[in-house]
Specification:
Helix content is 29%, strand content 19%. α2 crosses α4 and α5 runs antiparallel to α8.
């Protein structure tokens, strides 16, 4: 029978959790390095125009709706802590008094959102968090403490501001069970790299309690900063437990990104330095004669170079056609097939679509001007659109980490951080538009137009007014079926009614009247 009680008992001892398989051979607390090199991932992502386009559109769509403060509950019991979403003055569980959300916490929430730190806005923090999350699937937010004096005049340490950290340099320290922390204690106020203590207690400099190290910042192999579980938030949208790190999506499309880059470099070389497209073979000419001819052609090109209004040298197009005479036919050997034969543009489009699909982005209206296209007005362009479920997934991760870990560190437990709806509707504006459409509909119908609303609520207006049969000119009268004159059989002199199957005596009608 399952254990059921109104109040849970005190925990005496917890059972041991299972080990993380990837850490089984390296027990004891130590640095846990990600499987992938984050520095290389960031370098590839920052050099790829496609990844930067994806990151840009995801970041702007996640941040675009904005955010708000929302109450966690409507009333909360002061005795048992039960939360209610309806207005109740007395707790139905224990009979205690209830209270609304704290306005003091609301002011603290607003102050944190308006001024997260002296150097950056909260929007800068959110954009940076989303950037790290999309590229590395890991993001860190550190909470910086400061000294305060309480009502009694005692010096206490409290959170003062938040900052975004670079996941390329921060590493968690955990044992084989994934439990964070190592017996290296530091002072969160007067720490200097790399000063720590092997036993807990108070700092010998300032007297404040020491913190147990759970995260370290490593730059060039040296520890430059430390943090504990109380002063660091580590999030990830795609992390799969029990692993401590995320899963960068760029790894899944690593080859595709480099293939796109190589194709871009090929086009760059073709339009800047030129590629070997073919070989002209001159039978009967020695290599020295060919070199002399090539030097003469290059000298002629140099003489024909002119300077344009921008001060740049360019060559006249007339020298691009070279005509040579020869007693023997000249042989042309193609070095590589053209791009159309290799279907490079088709594969280029497929690679772009595959990369976008992994990141939850949909490429719209991708077109290329090729020889198979008859119209000359086709222009290549790419427009990316983020799927709503991708935006909600990224927003959900930030909301959970902020509401469950970040805000409680500041003592904010009555309010929630929420992103605004992705598509907000202005109900007043919609009502005004509907009223204008209704007035327009009445005016058009009074003028003789057969206007109406379609199934999507859009006003459909015909190009010409609807006239009656008497008002409509003869030439615009709709053609309809006119009654046919009865046909008389030349054999029986009877009226022909129906088809040959339906006529009497073989049909079902019987003999005609």
């Amino acid at each position: 029978m399952p254990w059921v009680s109104e109040k849970p008992p005190a925990i005496i001892e917890k059972s041991t959790r299972s080990v993380i398989p990837s850490y089984h051979l390296s027990p004891e607390p130590q640095l846990r390095i990600p499987k992938w090199n984050y520095s290389t991932i960031y370098q590839v992502a920052e050099e790829s125009w496609l990844i930067q386009s994806i990151v840009r559109v995801i970041t702007q769509e996640v941040v675009r709706p904005g955010w708000r403060r929302e109450p966690r509950f409507r009333r909360k019991c002061e005795e048992c802590g039960a939360e209610f979403q309806e207005t109740v003055e007395e707790c139905p569980i224990c009979g205690g008094k209830t209270r609304p959300p704290s306005q003091a916490q609301a002011r603290l929430f607003d102050r944190l959102i308006q001024h997260p730190n002296p150097d950056h806005s909260f929007g800068d923090l959110i954009r940076s968090i989303v950037y790290h999350d999309v590229i590395a699937d890991d993001w860190y937010v550190s909470i910086l403490p400061a000294k305060f004096k309480d009502k009694d005049g005692n010096v206490v340490i409290r959170p003062a501001e938040i900052r975004v950290e670079d996941p390329r340099y921060w590493r968690p320290i955990a044992d084989e069970y994934g439990r964070l922390g190592i017996d290296e204690y530091y002072c969160p106020i007067c720490y200097t790299p790399d000063e720590y203590y092997t036993k807990p207690g108070n700092c010998p400099k300032c007297g404040l309690p020491l913190e147990r190290t759970a995260y370290v910042q490593i730059v060039n192999g040296e520890i430059t900063a430390r943090s504990s579980e109380n002063w660091m938030i580590h999030g990830s949208t795609g992390r799969v437990l029990p692993e401590l790190h995320g899963r960068p999506k760029i790894i899944a499309v690593w080859d595709l990104i480099h293939t796109i880059k190589v194709m871009d470099e090929y086009n760059l070389d073709a339009y800047s330095e030129g590629k070997l497209g073919g070989i002209l073979n001159f039978p009967g000419y020695s290599q020295e004669q060919i070199k002399a001819l090539q030097a003469e052609i290059q000298a002629d090109i140099k003489r024909r170079e002119v300077q344009d209004v921008r001060g740049l040298l360019r060559t006249k197009k007339t020298i691009r056609t070279l005509m040579l005479g020869s007693e023997q036919p000249i042989q042309f050997i193609r070095a590589m097939p053209p791009l159309e034969d290799m279907q490079s543009l088709d594969f280029y489009m497929v690679y772009i679509q595959a990369v976008c699909a992994v990141f939850g982005v949909q490429p719209l209206a991708i077109s290329f001007a090729t020889k198979s296209v008859k119209s000359s007005s086709v222009a290549p362009y790419i427009r990316l659109e983020v799927q709503n479920r991708t935006i909600k997934e990224i927003q959900r991760d930030k909301e959970e980490m902020f509401n469950n870990f970040l805000l409680p560190r500041f003592g904010i437990t009555d309010w929630l951080f929420k992103f605004n709806p992705i598509e907000q509707k202005d109900e007043l504006r919609e009502a005004q538009i509907r009223q204008i459409d209704a007035n327009t509909l009445v005016t058009l119908r009074n003028a003789g137009f057969d206007a109406k609303f379609n199934e999507y609520g859009k006003l459909v207006i015909p190009t010409e007014p609807t006239l009656s049969q008497e008002e409509m000119p003869a030439k615009k009268r709709p053609k309809g079926k006119t009654p046919q004159k009865p046909k008389v059989s030349s054999a029986s002199e009877r009226v022909i009614a129906g088809t040959t199957v339906e006529r009497w005596p073989h049909g079902t009608r019987g003999a005609p009247e």
